Amino acid sequence: MASVAAVRAGFRAAERELKSRVSGQQQLGPFRRISTRARKTAFLAAIPALSYLGYEAHKKVSFATTVYALDKADEVIERADYLYSCGETEKLYQLLLQYKDSDDAEFLWRLARASRDLALVPNVAADQKKQLTYEAFDYAKKALEKNEACFAAHKWYAICLSDVGDYEGVKVKIGNSYIIKDHLERAIELNPKDATSIHILGYWCFAFAELPWYQRKVAAVIFASPPTATYEEALAYFLKAEDVDPNFYSKNLLMLGKTYMMLKDQDKALLWLHKARDYPAITEEDKQVHKEALDLLKKLGG
After folding, report:
1. pLDDT at 48 (0 to 100)
2. Taking a C-beta distance cutoff of 8 angstroms, is the pair 125, 95 a contact?
3. What's the subunit arrangement here (predicted)?
4. Do residues 178 and 194 lie in contact, with contact meaning Cβ atoms separated by under 8 Å?
5. What is d(CA 12, CA 266) in angstroms, rounded to the nearest whole number?
6. What domain range is 289 assigned to?
7. Could you write out the DSSP letters of every residue in 230-247?
8. Positive or negative CA dihedral for 196, 91, 117, 291?
9. Longest CA–CA separation in the chain, Å
10. Rounded Cα distance, 14 and 67, in Å
């Protein structure tokens, strides 16, 4: 979080300057450098001189408080990212839930992700899954409102909007497709090195490449030019994601295998499906990917 570090550094520099100024005043005395007439005026009026000293003290306390708050925010985010890397979904969700009313997009998009991950846990009740899905979307939407320049907010808004569409029917889901694509492209524009945004755009292409005929018919009714994509386009994004960050995500490996299957390239399909099968299964999604890769390998005789 370079931006937070930069802000903190700025506050600390200002605090050092403030300490120096306050220290100088204490050594000289609050009235040492002003004339006798000015001292008398200040004594009679009192408020201007005392207000200035009070303002300096207030600034000093404010700087210290702000720096502490930034340090605390850093600690929470580092803790959250550690829990995410360990697959501790429930603990992560409970940690971030304390910051659901935060104005910081960095907390909110992580909470959207945690809510969504919790919804994907096996055996979660259907009503709870739906509640968590909509909750995730609300947090992602709020993150985007708080910081439009946050690439992760755009990414998770796109993901969560797609998830909500599963509950609102084919027409709504397809109707949201252009919005989803726009936010993914914006996320990539803001951070070209984020492999997951590139992967998801590939998944978007794959989904429209394999869209069933009846859903294509619905899309044609909604749009004069309904969204379309090819497996070749999907493959290009999946490969680009892998190039940006090799072996970063089990599902990207799986989707490469599935895309090569659709393109009738069995050798490459087997290569990527084996990689997906052998990927360490940490999260629930990793475990689902592992199972699907095994099933497809059996189907291909590999």
Report:
1. 39
2. no
3. Interacts with microtubules.
4. no
5. 59
6. 249-302
7. -HHHHHHHHHHHHHHSTT
8. positive
9. 99
10. 11
Q: Are residues 48 and 94 in the same domain?
A: no
Residue 142 is assigned to a structural domain of this protein: yes
Residue type at 44 in one-letter notation: L
Kindly report, residue by residue over 52-110, the tens digit of the pLDDT: 444 344 444 444 444 445 578 889 999 999 999 888 999 999 999 999 999 999 999 99
Domain count, the chain: 4
Residue 154, pLDDT > 80, answer: yes
Q: In the chain, where does DSSP find H-type helix?
A: 2-28, 36-45, 47-85, 89-97, 105-119, 126-146, 151-165, 169-175, 177-190, 195-209, 213-222, 231-244, 250-262, 266-278, 284-300
Angle (CA) 65 107 207, round 5°? 165
pTM, to two decimals: 0.71
